[in-house]
Predict the 3D structure of the following.
Amino acid sequence: MITIKEIAKAADVSPSTVSNALNGKPNVSEKVRERIFALCEEMNYQPNPASKGLKSGKSKTLLFVFSDFDRQFYLQIIKGINQYTNLRGYDLLVCSAKTCSKFMHPSITCGSIILDRRVQDQLILQKASKDYPIISLDRPLKHQGAKSILLDNYSVMSELIEGLYHRGYRKFAFLAGVESTLDNQERYAAMAEVLRSHGLKIAPEHHLHGDYTEQSGYQAAKILLLSKQLPEIVVSANDDMAFGMIEAFRESGLRIPQDIAVTGFDDEKPAEALGLTTISVPNFERGYLATQHLINCIIGEGDFEPVTINARVAWRNGTVLKQLGSRSPKDQ
């Protein structure tokens, strides 16, 4: 077992400085603190759970790691996390992937909730244990110490596409989010499978790419408008990109949904005002539930079995027609 004295020797500081850094004391400079944390990781230092200031005795701070301060749906998740955190008398620390590693230490936080694909699986599996539980909201993990709480993207996206087909839509486009994310992959897979079951597919030029931001949706729409043949409907992997597309289409004089229809995913606050057909995700409840499971694991009353959350289609007439009208047998 690596000791504090060995960490101190490697860092060229006193053992008390290492102890103060690990216990979050303010009398250690940020530069020294970071060097100590880096050495702890490099040398695989495992603090004694009975030490002063560690989770079992003192720390009651949870860590939430997320990726984008501009995306609105995160706000609802954070509200849910914060409400249950306060209810149970814990504190909350929020950071991004760039800085999360140094805070994922039992002397600073007692568990983490991860919603940031930039956090590598390897880091989560290295940090997670029964003594330091981690909840993942963006990937499946099998590890005694890591619990996945994931959205059932496939079922609800299948329901949306099937409903659009029965409303008469045949020419589909898909606006993808970040390709590597599980959410994006499942949403596209569900859409492609439903269309395939009806003898349809998405044309290569109608498979568009974004990054979940409104600006990327706007740019994707501008690129799509260069095409000679527009789709009847664009299914966006999230609401923010759908908002950007709607703005670009309207700037170009297109009527929504008469000339082109748009759907989203998340049901963010502006969606209802726009009449956007989307998928309503219980994000507040998602954050609340994740925190509940995390604290249960921290106090030894939880388990690490995965949990699946359901969503529902919110049908609205502002961006999708109720019925396209009659079609010839060939079109059907």
